[in-house]
Amino acid sequence: MHHRTIPDTSLRLTELGFGASVIGNLYRITSAEEASAAVETAWNAGIRYFDTAPHYGLGLSERRLGTTLRNHPREQYVVSSKVGRLLVPNEQPRGVDTEGFVVRDDLRRQWDFSRDGVLRSIDDTLTRTGLDRLDIVYLHDPDDHWPQAADEAMPTLADLRDQGVIGAIGAGMNQSAMLARFLRETAADVVMLAGRYTLLDQTALDDVLPAAQETGKSVVAVGVFNSGLLSRDRPTEDLKYNYQDSPTDLVTRARTIAEVCEAHGTTLPAAAIAFPLTHPSTVNVTLGMRNPDQVTRNAELHRSTIPEALWDDLRSQGLIRSDAPTGYGDLIPHGTGGPHT
């Protein structure tokens, strides 16, 4: 599997990453055995970048991911986790978590982007995962916490990076405008962009992607299926878009894109994975994967050959923005070894 390098760091990410939110029992229970098998299948498929967070299953995702990764040589993979939500005892448990994860709510999340909160969160993550270090640490959803996140949390992460404790730092969000600020105004190396650079939404071209190019920094793209609408060869009306029911016009648009993909001998989900990687600042696409079958399918989709003519056709029909750089021929090398090695 190809790797891309985060500039000014030694971190090389496989183009496809394993998103561990779902093995934290997102929306439904996943057994420990199935979660471990998913991680092992990802490893066997060549995936070497794994992303998790305390938020995912109130620590369950971190524990499960660490348990399996500890069986592999530490220098061969990259792990990221996040800070901003401390896990603290829940004084009023109701039995089950209320934020989408099917786990007991003996713990609760507490927003904290202070220096002490960041250091405590990283220590707790290392304890849960059993790993000796984190390669990337992101601020997790700091939308309503810019002052503390930018002025306290990010400098704390920068100190740890400069000391060699962690390899790279950044922020992860569902919006792109504030991520552009993190790239331009803070010491961030990389941002995790959720759902804003996809076949249906290219708003990141207005802010975070130009910021990444101007600063020589990087983007990890997640949410590339926009919660499901781009995940099938033939989109159906029951699929979600950005966690909600899909608007009729977007279902129609997705179906049209799917037809163009089919005409070029590929599929909508394969193109959805490939599209963000055509931008010169994108170093990785990370997908949530619950079981071995999902991992195998996504790895096969990533390995699919996407004709460059597809992007030209989509642009000419107004189905993607005309200013979206598409095709590896448009890539501008940056970082050690260039974007595609």
Secondary structure topology:
Elements: E1 3-5, E2 12-14, E3 16-19, H1 32-44, E4 49-51, H2 60-69, E5 78-83, E6 85-89, E7 107-111, H3 115-129, E8 136-140, H4 146-162, E9 168-173, H5 177-185, E10 190-194, H6 208-215, E11 218-222, E12 240-241, E13 244-245, H7 248-263, H8 268-277, E14 282-288, H9 292-303, H10 308-316
Parallel strand pairs: 3-4, 3-14, 4-5, 5-8, 8-9, 9-10, 10-11, 11-14
Antiparallel strand pairs: 1-2, 6-7, 12-13
Assigned CATH class: Alpha Beta
Enumerate the strands of the largest sheet in spatial order, edge to edge or round the barrel: 3-4-5-8-9-10-11-14
The description of the largest β-sheet is: 8 strands, parallel, barrel
Please compute the radius of gyration using only Cα atoms. 19 Å
- How would you classify the helix and strand content by structural class? alpha/beta
Query: What is the number of beta strands?
Result: 14
For this structure, the CATH topology is: TIM Barrel
Total discrete domains: 1
- Name the CATH superfamily classification: NADP-dependent oxidoreductase domain
Helix content: 25-40%
Order of helices and strands: EEEHEHEEEHEHEHEHEEEHHEHH
Low-confidence stretches: 328-341
* Average pLDDT: 95
C-alpha end-to-end distance: 9 Å
Shape: globular
CATH architecture tag: Alpha-Beta Barrel
Helical stretch tally: 10
